[in-house]
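Subject: for your reference before the review

Hello V.,

The reviewers asked for a structural picture of the protein, and I figured it would be easier to keep everything in one thread rather than splitting it across files. Below is the amino acid sequence we used in the manuscript, unchanged from the supplementary table.
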Amino acid sequence: MLRLLTIVLMLALLALSGVFSSRAAYADGGAPNLAYVAGTTKGISIIDIAQQKVTGTFTVGGDPHSVMLSLDGRFLYVAQPALGRMIMLAAKTGAIICSVNLPGQPSLLALDPTPNANVLYAADNGDDSVRAIDSTNCAIKRTLQTGSPVYGLAVAAISSGSSGSSSQIWASGTDAVTIFDATGKQLGTVPIPGGPQYLSIPLGTMAYVTTRSGAVDAIDIFSHKVFPLISGGKYGPMDYDAITGDVYVPDQLHKQLIVL
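And here is what came back from the structure prediction:
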């Protein structure tokens, strides 16, 4: 997937130009140099990064929030909280391929980056579970019980040396981040002062979490030790550059982008 600061800057540019609605917009990108943005006035907007403009739209109802692009760039996964479902679209045409009804108002999506995993995770803060969904046909594979509403969701690819990578699912709850393995087994919890919210886990040894009290912490993926980083803002959904490892944190309070 494309993980570039350019996408974040384009979101800011389009927000100023009035393309976006008043609610938050979420983007994902991929070849050929395109970004797909949910949360715009028409549903899903397609941005040509080189031209720095919107080049197309997919009309999607249900107050679309998160959008994820498949690893091969062929499909889009879109959360529709107002309809209580997630849909899978053809990235070229916007045609609906399959859909799945989910409890609550699903607004959080996270794709397993491990090759051949073919799993997407969905959740929201009106339900105390995470659904593992087959990313090829929208079938629910299993349910991960979190025990509290889910405010943030991410998947970590954990290097296993010569045997490749394994996946961990991280879910922000009321007071802590709960961690599961790919089978749904709970591996532990990490208490976060101020209540965890958005999660971002680039390749490496650290996960990053915003808090509902206005801070950003780093969490060691292996030891689960928490390191406070910044505070005093209103931090939104984060993203990262897969090449440099830089993490981009939008501060809505001070209208700035922080690079960690």
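For the response letter, the relevant points are probably these. Residues 1-23 have pLDDT under 50 and may be disordered. The helical segments are 5-17.

Happy to draft the paragraph if you're swamped.

O.
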